[in-house]
């Protein structure tokens, strides 16, 4: 069947080939992009004065690129232009309680991106990236807010990281106890974990009775 | 009032002093430990061949220490003993939709730990750390599973990172639009975000009718 043909994929490298649990590694675009599209906070890693630094950062995926943004005064934005970065996105899906302590695990989906960060200076690309970061958090929102003005643009740094050396790692499914442990008298199973969005709380200055916009209506 | 006396706190360093949003930084043990105790997946950063690597990893906090564990064959466990690491824990609490694109934000709590990782070899400390990692995920679980045997211990590396150079960063509250934007016709407010645990799904091999243990009863 055509639908079973493999789609485009990222190439594995030494760094993106796990030293264990190789069965959990994924390189196909569908899996990698789905993980990246399901979150909006990444962990940006860089090296400062020889030591690693990991900071939570908002991001967006556009095709085979990531955009990150932050204040021009913030540490990562001042540090990483032209430098190696590692961008990691992790989603926790479940807690796996095995009978054996060592088989306790977590169901998760993660993507690790190795690359180089470049400051984006082209106005059109900056505008696209800033819209994408807003839409990554809430789809449709960028068309319903005031775009950045010139002064705000000057305060905002945008970084681009090409998706090239990329891998996903996915654990799904059940407890994996050793056969000789299955009779042990401990409860075993999986606790589902998910992120939920609550009812939107309007800003105090919003005129009372202002309806939720369509892109938030499902949260009412 | 005695209750208003400041409790113990971590000392700020150049690296843990933010270059902006200094009002969001926290160093008191209560805040730092509360964030660390509310999660079980951290992002471990280290430097490999000059480049940063960030990997999601299970951890536990015990007093002023973090313990991380993993297979002795995994990349971080083989790489980081005696080396500088950065361990970051982030919890997303809300999506802040401002009228201005640039004031979109996220309510979050994060902790960044700068330190050196050390392999734990003392059997008593290893046992304590492995129990702590299980209990970090589900309180009370370590007493209700089979502890690791000698062969499993040999397959498992435990790392200790002292909590010393540590800071939390916390954003809470409302939209922070500029006064001149408040009349703009865009919905503004905060969408609460939280993690929820679902009903535990028993392992297929568990005898039917096995009750949930007490430490999971609140999830029934």
UniProtKB/TrEMBL annotation, chains A, B:
InterPro entries: Pyridox_Oxase-rel, Split_barrel_FMN-bd. Residues 1-22 are annotated as: Disordered. It comes from the Bacteria. This is Flavin-nucleotide-binding protein. It comes from Marinitenerispora sediminis.
